[in-house]
């Protein structure tokens, strides 16, 4: 869920809660019943917000875990490639060193 869609969702939920509250306040009912309705609606809205936040958190956690695994795989591949390149460089240097030793031995004669 992107930051913008999260903000929009929160704005919609807030607007719905305010609208429901205003509707209840203007409805012809006893004060005690009105307070119960407001309390019930506030609890429902609170539960809905908690549920949506929980869902968003789960989705972000899944996405972060997937990105972490992808990064680790790419890192392992890069390290492996570098290891092979380092081995190639070492073999090349060893060959050059052997050639230098042979030339040095020839010059010593």
TrEMBL record:
| Keywords recorded for this protein, A-Z | Membrane, Transmembrane, Transmembrane helix
Name the Pfam families on file. Answer: YtxH (PF12732)
At the top level, the lineage of the source is Bacteria
Asked if the keyword Kinase belongs to this entry, the reply reads no
Transmembrane ranges, per UniProt, are: 6-27
Q: Which residues form the signal peptide?
A: none
What name goes with this protein? YtxH-like protein
Q: In which organism is this protein found?
A: Pricia antarctica
Species classification: Bacteria, Pseudomonadati, Bacteroidota, Flavobacteriia, Flavobacteriales
């Amino acid at each position: 869920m992107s930051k913008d869609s999260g903000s929009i969702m929160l704005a919609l939920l807030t607007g719905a809660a305010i609208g429901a509250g205003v509707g209840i306040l203007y409805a012809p009912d006893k004060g005690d019943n009105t307070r119960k309705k407001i309390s019930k609606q506030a609890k429902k809205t609170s539960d809905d917000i908690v549920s949506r936040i929980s869902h968003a958190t789960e989705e972000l956690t899944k996405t972060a875990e997937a990105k972490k695994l992808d990064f680790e795989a790419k890192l392992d591949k890069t390290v492996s490639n570098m290891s092979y390149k380092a081995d190639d460089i070492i073999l090349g240097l060893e060959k050059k060193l052997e050639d230098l030793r042979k030339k040095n031995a020839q010059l010593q004669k």
